[in-house]
Design brief:
The protein has a three-stranded antiparallel sheet with strand order 3-5-4, with no helix packed on it. It has a three-stranded antiparallel sheet with strand order 6-7-8, with helices on one face. Helix 1 packs antiparallel against helix 2, helix 1 runs parallel beside helix 3 and helix 2 runs antiparallel to helix 3. Strand 4 and strand 5 form a beta hairpin. With 359 residues, it is an alpha+beta fold. The protein has five helices and eight strands.
């Protein structure tokens, strides 16, 4: 820009050119958004040596009275150092003044708009393990949270310089939380499959029962169905219509052999033919009534067998549902531990232990 030169009567000329400097710095975004940047600006003459143009630091410390604060960066310190360099080609010295500007990024914007929403979404991810395994919303909630994290990744990528030299800290945190969210979606599908295994009339294997009992003790969950192999009041044998012998095991562990289907007819052998004929007719009537009674008892027997099978299937379903609940609670505490450790380590410990740029 054009500027006037001020000439004194002693011949001293002062020419203050109006200059706007635009400089680029090597940006290290490893600890973004908790990063510090150290920029160096070197002022000196390349065409004239130190005997012709000499530069030196006019004031120490640097005058920052006219500095205008920035909403994104904090100016921590500015240092000016004078260096004299001699090149092999020439014996003349080449002085320069190097300004070191230490900047620190303000984190309030990123805390309010990025980090706090990410922590809230992490809490929503944990709620996936508290939903019922029979509910189809477990996978839906996990996918919704995963898409929200993807939006935050795009938002952060727009605010950072495109470089492959460094991986930002917030990017590592979001990638870790997205990995945990993806695992929660996969586990939600697995738990739903486990919970529905009872509908396929699949018995609970002994090793799964032992593992679930151990996990329930660790997670302080009281089991109601997994601890017992069979339910109370179970019909342990159902016979055919032809041989209607039924055994029923009740709560008092007493076994009954009486079915009512095997009535025995007998004759007492009295000599009176008339009376015997009368008794024979009576026996025919009794046999007809007994036949109807036997058919009725056999129908009741079949209904009890079907009811027993239905109770057994319901019991298997409840066992597998209880297994799904135990697995959900165990995964919940594992994900609470993983999310808490990753949040504390990546957002608290690493920013506090970052190396000092000024040293």
């Amino acid at each position: 820009m054009q500027a006037l030169a001020m000439v004194s009567y002693k011949g001293k000329v002062f020419w203050p050119p109006i200059v706007k400097f635009r400089s680029t710095c090597h940006i290290d975004i490893t600890y973004f958004p908790f990063d510090d940047q150290l920029c160096h600006m070197k002022f000196g003459s390349w065409a004239y040596d130190g005997f012709q143009v000499d530069v030196f630091n006019r004031s120490n410390p640097i005058d920052l009275s006219n500095f205008v604060s920035n909403g994104e960066w904090d100016l921590l310190s500015v240092k000016a150092e004078r260096h004299v360099v001699k090149y092999p080609c020439c014996p003349e010295p080449f002085p320069d003044v190097t300004f070191s500007i230490h900047l620190r990024r303000r984190t309030l914007y990123y805390m309010y708009n990025v980090i706090v929403p990410c922590i809230m979404l992490s809490v929503l991810t944990l709620l996936v393990f508290w939903m019922s395994p029979d509910s189809g919303e477990k996978v839906t909630l996990g996918l919704t949270v995963l898409l929200a994290f993807s939006v935050f990744m795009l938002l952060i990528a727009e605010n950072m310089p495109a470089t492959s030299s460094f991986v930002p800290l917030i990017g590592i945190y979001l990638t870790t939380i997205m990995a945990l969210t993806s695992m929660s979606v996969i586990l939600a599908v697995v738990v739903s499959n486990i919970s529905n295994s009872g509908h396929r009339e699949k018995a609970l294997p002994p090793f799964i029962r032992a593992v679930v009992i151990l996990l329930s003790k660790v997670c302080c969950i009281k089991l109601r169905f997994v601890n017992r192999a069979v339910c109370d009041g179970q019909i342990i044998q159902c016979a055919s219509k032809r041989n209607s012998q039924m055994f029923y095991k009740g709560n008092s562990n007493n076994i009954s052999h009486d079915s009512g289907c095997g009535l025995i007819d007998f004759e007492n052998g009295e000599p009176n033919n008339g009376r015997n004929l009368e008794r024979a007719n009576k026996r025919r009537d009794d046999r007809g009534e007994n036949r109807e009674l036997n058919e009725l008892l056999c129908k009741v027997h079949e209904m009890m067998c079907r009811e027993n099978d239905r109770d057994k299937n319901d019991y298997l379903c409840k066992q597998w549902q209880e297994v799904g609940i135990v697995v959900d609670r165990c995964m919940f505490w594992i994900f609470v531990l993983g999310t808490s450790m990753s949040t504390i380590y990546l957002l608290v410990i690493m920013p506090m232990t970052k190396p000092d740029k000024t040293s």
